[in-house]
Design brief:
The chain is mainly α. The chain has twelve helices and four strands, in the order ββββαααααααααααα. It has three domains: 131 residues, no CATH class; 53 residues, Arc Repressor Mutant, subunit A, CATH 1.10.10; 71 residues, Butyryl-CoA Dehydrogenase, subunit A, domain 3 (Up-down Bundle), CATH 1.20.140. The N terminus is likely disordered.
Length: 293
């Protein structure tokens, strides 16, 4: 017979190792307790018995009983965690969240208010799992109302698809959930926000990666930005300066041709252009000296 293997289960305050074949686990203390799933009625009775005994104890003796309560109810926590599988979070992580919530629920449970631990623990575990998804499972986080609505939407989609034999429409889902169709459509559009898509993932028939669908920078974008910034500055120039700029950059005159048109020398035109550039840089908030040759 193969030697049993122990799987560590990290739960704060409870250090246990579940032995799958011997069906026993050593806990932090000296007790050895059953770890295999037990029938619900037996689990409920055993849990109530242990909690009733723990009320009258303190210190290590009470901790032993609380540890046993946690361990025999771990299958319940795992079952609740399994409801959220295949939603972008690993099963191990979901079980960890559920077991932590179970531990806190057991430690906070007051047997004097009722003998069924799970009536108190199950809502606590489910609430912790939902909070985990709200805080950690979204790459892009939608509004909270949509986060809380999506689980109902997913369940309704699966149910209606089976009944109708085809994917349900947004209108049919809205009737099923008694919700506005706008809210249903918004929740449906958020379906991909929990998962990041790889840029290397093929998205078309020829196998081209998603990165090839990303837009490129328009060559005229920077020019448009410059025109938008320089427009007001140019309008503030003198008429002669605007004429020089028009001849140089729009009509593509050489400096000598501009000089002939104005009746000055080419050197003077060069100086005029430098002075105009300085005025423009000052108008748009740049330091003219930083562009000095």
């Amino acid at each position: 017979m193969a030697k049993p293997t122990a799987t560590p289960l990290p739960i704060p305050g409870v250090s246990v190792s579940i032995v799958t074949e011997e069906k026993t686990v050593p806990v932090t203390h000296t007790a050895t307790i059953k770890a295999a799933p037990i029938p619900p009625a037996e689990r409920k009775a055993r849990t109530a018995e242990l909690l009733d005994r723990a009320i009258h104890l303190t210190g290590p003796e009470r901790d032993v009983l609380i540890d046993e309560v946690i361990v025999i109810n771990i299958p319940v926590a795992r079952s609740l965690a399994a409801r959220y599988r295949n939603r972008g979070q690993s099963q191990d992580e979901l079980e960890q969240v559920a077991c932590l919530a179970l531990t806190r629920a057991v430690q906070a449970f007051d047997p004097e208010r009722g003998d069924d631990l799970l009536v108190f623990a199950v809502p606590s575990i489910l609430g912790e799992l939902k909070r985990h998804f709200r805080s950690a499972a979204w790459v892009v986080r939608p509004p909270r109302r949509i986060q809380e609505f999506r689980p109902r939407l997913v369940a309704a989609e699966e149910d209606l698809s089976q009944r109708l034999g085809r994917p349900a429409s947004a209108a049919e889902l809205a009737v099923e959930l008694e919700a506005p169709i706008e809210e249903v459509e918004e929740a449906m559009s958020c379906g991909d926000l929990a998962h990041g898509a790889s840029l290397d993932e093929p998205v078309v028939a020829d196998g081209s990666p998603r990165s090839e669908l990303l837009p490129t920078i328009d060559p005229g974008f920077e020019q448009s930005e410059a025109v938008a910034m320089l427009g007001p500055a140019c309008r503030g120039l003198k008429a002669r300066d605007r004429k020089i700029l028009r001849m140089r950059f729009y009509e593509q005159f050489t400096q000598q041709e501009i000089a002939d048109e104005l009746g000055v020398t080419q050197v003077q035109v060069s100086r005029l252009l430098q002075r105009i550039f300085t005025d423009l840089r000052r108008s748009i908030g740049e330091d003219p000296t930083s562009h000095a040759a």
